[in-house]
Each structure stands twice: as structure tokens, then as C-alpha cells.
């Protein structure tokens, strides 16, 4: 029989496949996501409204915790400090971020490509490591501080203050502000600048009147995000604020929950809810503000390459200023930290080559807790990265490429963790572990951490996957359906192969985020489930700066090697 | 195979009704075209047939088999219909070779390798692409991709072939060739075909039957000749081919129409139009002729005194824009007209008369749809 024969339907190649498989996957995804995202809330919310600890059978529902919180001067001071620190962090990071984005994105400054690549590196490294490295160089007994003090007789700066902390926070968050602005610059229609030039404006005027004003939504977005991140940041306030008795939100929660002999869990739960509500309010405010930014819509034809501004005589001076920033903000502190890991102590008074030692690394290799931390971190990053990627890709497929009835609900659920401060997620999982015995058992393994980490970064992962999925024409899966493929088959044969690059990017992103994550972990670790970040904190508090520097160096090395390999071998774009 | 029967098919998006309870039948082996301006609901209709869009009301059946029946809650998903849909974008899977693209539907139907290879060769021969099996879609030209898309659909012998503007991404010359080729192939295969287009010449050239759609409704369902010669209303007359429109009223004994410019057409107005009621009269530019200086009009012709306004040379003929009073009309002639006053003769049998008043409002609407 040939195609040109009239084939009766009965002889045709008809096939029947049930819908069941696809629907099962879709419902399972919805249920898993709902449980992962919502379940941790329940015990925390319950605890906040309980007069005693969760395990106390005599505890009753009440608002006592909130009453205690309202009259707690300590909490309100921490609240104010968090606001100030968040504000300073946002302002400083945005200043650096905007300037560098314009320089890298729109000018003919020498070495822009190389500099642009370098500027985002601090994003790959945890705040904790960055803070430790600044401590090594600029802290009260830091290398540069002591050297300058010897020269001029007075301490040149004081990082143990809100403004000092804000500078560190600003440097840590500048790459994020830079990325938001750079994305806006790259998306802007060059015709807008050409039109201004055509109207007779000179470069400087175009820059001032067109380019930078068009960045306003990105600047606003960056400011709010960095404000929120600063407010909930743990590492910098912990390392620089404690000695000066400056508490912020996170250090308040940290001290109350972890350092007290008998923590008031009710109070901590109530406080973390206040943190949560402030963050959600800020994010809603931001959505409103940016939502009104229609007049800044700049998407247009991108046929022409934007012409870069000629800096003229300022080319080299601006380049040198940028390089100096990179040196003093990142290279010198990191270098100092690495140097600290191979010396007995680091001070300008003694040449470092006279105190070189391998003892800190010996300590790492011989102490179980260090080896455990490194191994656990690698395990969580790889296994968690894989599991997270699978979950995230499935969520993305169900929400954007299925006729699932609850697709929009799933999307909404998956975005919730975006509004959850990291410290809140850690606490929520802690309460979950305290109140649900089987999960309490998980507490002694790394898998509770894996779960908590994945939940926290679902929205980030979706951000890496969904845009790529949306670029795959909907006709491609519609055509697979019309030739007879069910939903699962369509996803497997058509969509997943086309999503491969996005999946690698998602995995690489999760790996790096899990590698540097520690805030979620501080509340969840138990002996045997330590990760690098928590061990760094623990030993730093004991004053063991040598092994801390060595462990931080190991983390930096793993990250650098991973990022390099991911880019070279997998061709992955991270923060593209 | 069997007839495709569509009854009361409806699609609503919120409060907007994209397809308003349409009925039609496509007979076994027939080539039926859904034609209309964009937004008329033709693509939505096709997607509902394919199973890629769920109807809000009505019924679709292929012979005895119900494909979708909203009232009975019955719905066969796209993958179980065994229909073939060719997309405007072709939707070839970019990560698969031509062979893999064609093999996928066959693998789903559990054919073994030998059978698959036979089918693929046969389908590629049918679309004249033998020897291209191992290329990737991006290595092919637009015309070749279009034929691969068709082959991928034909390879599993669909019970119904659905084509969604498959030629619209080809350049003009290629499109004309593809039209003849596609129509010929469809006749040989004898597969019942539904074809969606907004291109009236495509529809006229290829179809056994055309369904003209407007705002979610089928306004005429007839052969290409009937649609062109006897459009049911002024919308169809304007959308298919081009027409000149004049307004007038039925005369006192309903034996003719008196136009606003004073001329009288000796053709009976449509039935149901009372004496003095408004009538729209239309004629096609190619049915007219310009009278020579001393030539007299035939007995069955209407003559307008006109002034030549603009002449465009179109190769095969001249298009002449003339003014009759304050009305602008388009006519066609084989020889260049002289400037100044001319007489335009329109044979009585070519007039198309519709009940109702001026078309202006409707014309705006049509041009809005078209852009």
C-alpha cells in the first residue's frame, strides 16, 4: 500500500495513548511544590502564635510573642540598624553598579570586556568569604589598617560601624546592581540615543539626558533588591557588627535562636514573621513602582549595534580608577585571605615570607569537621543542583507548556520563595524539623539542607530556565501533539533536548548558589551535616583565623575551578 | 474515509466570541478553504479541529466517530485524533534531521525500522525531496522546509489534513508554483483537506469549496466560481476580487435600480427589496469597457460619463481610476485610455446587487481587519 492509495481509516496507523501519565506528573509537581514551599511555614506560624514552645503541651494560642516583641527595645534597635545598613548597602552598591554598567556597556574604555567579566566575580563567592577577606585587610587589626596606622598614627577607618558595614555590603552587592543596569543598557534601543545625537546633542548630554534616565527602572529595581538583601544579610553584620554591639535583623535572630542557652522560640518566630512582612511589603512596593514605569519601555529594533561613547582623554584615567576599585575591593582582600591561609599571622610588622606555614591546611586535612564540611558542601551542591534542576525544569514545563488546569497556581506557588528572606527559610525548616519527627531525623543528614536550599532557589532557577523555554516556539510542541505524541513524550523528545543549554545553566547556577549558601544552613546543621559556611562561622567565632582562611581559600578555589569549567566545557552562561 | 461534520462549533475567550456557532461539512476527499481577514476566526476553527484549542460549544465528528462534543463532555485530545496539521511556521524540530522529523510520528505508531524507512522515502519522493533526509531543517530553503512539514504530516496518513496558511512564508513566485503542486498532490492522495488562508487568490485557485468567514461566522459556503460571481453580500464582493460600489434605490415597480448619480440599471433588485428601498450595486473592474468616440452602448449595458483621474499600467492591462460625479471608480482596459472625458459601459449581467445602504462603515471595518 502506498501513500497515494486511499487508505480506509481502519488500516491507518491510528494509536491511542491515555492522558494519565502526563496528568500524574503534573499533579505530582503541583503537590511537591506546594508541600516544599508551604509546609515550612506552618510550624513557624503556629509557634509565633503559641504561648510556649512547640513541644510544650500546655502552650496555648496567644499573641504574647508579638507583645513581647513590641516592647523589646533590642528588637527595635536591630530593626533600625537593619534599615540603615540596608539603605547604605543599596546606595553604595547602586552607585558603583550604575557607573560600571555605563562604563562597561556604553563606552570605549580600554579592556571593557575583561573588566566586565571580572566585575561579576564577587557574585560567585559567598558574602561570608568576602567579609572575612575584608576583615583580614581592612579590619581593626587588618593588614592595610595597621600599615596605615603605623604611617599616620591614627586608625584610618572603622569597619565596626554601620557606615563601615555598608561599604562592605555595597562592594558585595555592587555586581548585582551592575548586572541589572547592564541588562537595561543592553536592552535599550540604540535609536533613542541616535535620535538625540541627530537632534544635535553631544555625547555627554546624551549620556546624561537619555542613557542614564532610561536606567531609572533598573536602578530602582536594584536599589530595592539590594536594600532587602542588606536588611536580611547575616555575614557582614555578624563579622563587623558584633564587636561594636550593632545588631541587625539577622544577627538578632541568630543570637536569639542559636547562642542563648534556652532560646525563646516563640519570640524568634514572631520576629522572623516581622522580617518576612517587611520584605514582602518592600517587594510589593517595588512591583508597584516598576509597574508604573511604562514610559521607560525601551524594547525596540536592535538592528544597529549601539555606538559607544568616546571617552577621549578620560579613557585611561577612568580605566585606572576601575582597576583600582577592582584591586582594593576584591583582589587585595581575597589575596590577603589566601595569604593569611599560608602564614602564621599576617601583619605589616613582619614580612610574610618569614612566617609561611602549611599548618592551617594540615589542620583542614586532619580534622573531620573540615573534611565533612567540604564533602557535604560538594555533595549538596552537586546532588542538590541536579535534583533542583529536575524540579525547576518540570515546574517550568508544567506552568508554561501544558494544559494543566492549575498551571497558574503552580507558577504562583513557585514564586513564593522569592519573598522569603534566607534566614527565614532556615528558621522555618528548623521549626519544621522540631515539630515533625521524621524531618527531625533528616536533620542529621545533609538532605534537609538540600531541601531547604532547593526551596530557596526555585525562583532563581526558574529565572534561568523559563526565558529559554519561552524562546522555543509553541508550534514545536503543538506539532508534536498533532502527529500523535502525548505530553510527556513531547517534553522528552522535543522540549528537553532544546532546553539542554538552559538546564546546564540552571545546574551551574544552583551549584554556585548552594556552594556559597550558609544563612539557611546555620539553623539546620547538626554534627555531621556541617557545610563550609557554617564551619567558617563557627571557627571564626573561636578565633581560629588560620584554618578559617584556609577553608575559605578552598571554597574560592572550588568556585573558580567550577565556574571556569562550566563556562569552558558546558558553555554555560551564568548570570548572562 | 469519511466526511468531516462540524455542528454549532463555538469558541469564546472571556466575553469575546471568536467563533460563533458555525456549521459545515467537508466531504471525503474534498479541498475546503476557510477564507477571511485576520481575526475572523478561521485559524481558531482549524486549531479546534486539530485538537490544539478546546471548543466552548458544538460538535466535531469524522463520519460516525465523535471527535469532540462539548454538550456530552466528550473530547479526543490532539495526539489521539490522527489528523495532520501543517503549521504556518512549519514547526520542524530544529534538533532533528529531516529523517528524524519524519520518523517521530512513525515511531509513535510503533513501526519497525524497515517500514519507517520505506514510508519516509515514499513521503520524501512525494514532496520531491529525495536525498535530503539527513539534512537539518536550518540547512533547507523556506520552500523545502514547507515541503518537509507537509511530508511529516503525510507520512503517517492522517485521516484529515489541516493546513494553516502553509504558503504565506514563501516568496510570491514560489507561492504560485507551490499552489499548483499542493493542489495536485492533494487530488492524488484524496485526503480530505481543510485549508486556512487570508489570500483570496490562493483560495480561488485551490479549493473545491470556500467558506468565507467574517467575525466568527461563515458568511458564504460555495464553490470558488459562485463566490466570485454571486457573492452573498457586499463584504464577500469586496473581500474576494475587487469591486466598485454604488448606492441607489429600487425603482417604483422593482424592475431596476436608480443610482444616486441618476443612472438606471435594468436589473431586478434582490428579492425582498421593496420599491424605493436602498440597494448597493457592485461591479468588478475587469467586466467594464471604455466606449470609443462614436461607439454606442449595447442594449444591455449601463453607461457612465466619467473623467479619467489616474492611469496605472499593470502589464497585462491598464487600471484606470475614473470619477463619475463625486464617486471614484476603478475600471480596467486593454488599451491606454485617452485623458479627459470617457464613457464607461457595464454589462447588465455583471452587476451584483445587495439589499441595504452604503458600505462605507463596513469598508472601514474590513480594512481594519486586513491590517
Structural features, described:
The complex is a heterodimer of chains A (576) and B (371). Chain A is an all-alpha fold. Helix content of chain A is 71%, strand content 0%. Chain A folds into 2 domains: 20-48 and 358-576, Orthogonal Bundle (MetI-like fold), CATH 1.10.3720; 72-300 and 313-357, Orthogonal Bundle (MetI-like fold), CATH 1.10.3720. In chain A, helix 3 (64-70) crosses helix 15 (265-291), helix 14 (249-259) runs antiparallel to helix 15 and helix 22 crosses helix 24 (487-516). Mean pLDDT of chain A is 87; it is low at 4-17 and 293-303. Chain B is of the alpha+beta class and 371 residues long. In chain B, the strands form 4 sheets. Chain B has a 6-stranded mixed beta sheet, sandwiched between helices. In chain B, strands 2-1-4-5-6 form a 5-stranded antiparallel beta sheet, covered by helices on one side. Chain A binds chain B through residues 2-4, 6-9, 12-17, 19, 403, 473, 475-476, 478-486, 489, 493-494, 497-498, and chain B through 1-2, 50-52, 54, 62-63, 77-85, 87-89, 91, 93-95, 104-106, 108-111, 119, 122-123, 126, 152-157, 159, 162, 188-190.
Shape of chain B: elongated
Kindly state the number of beta strands of chain A.
Answer: 0
In the CATH hierarchy, the architecture of the largest domain in chain A is: Orthogonal Bundle
Average per-residue pLDDT of chain A, rounded, comes to: 87
CATH-derived architecture of the largest domain in chain B: 3-Layer(aba) Sandwich
Report the C-alpha radius of gyration of chain A, rounded: 26 Å
Structural class of chain B: alpha+beta
Spans of chain B of at least 5 consecutive residues whose pLDDT stays below 50 are 360-371
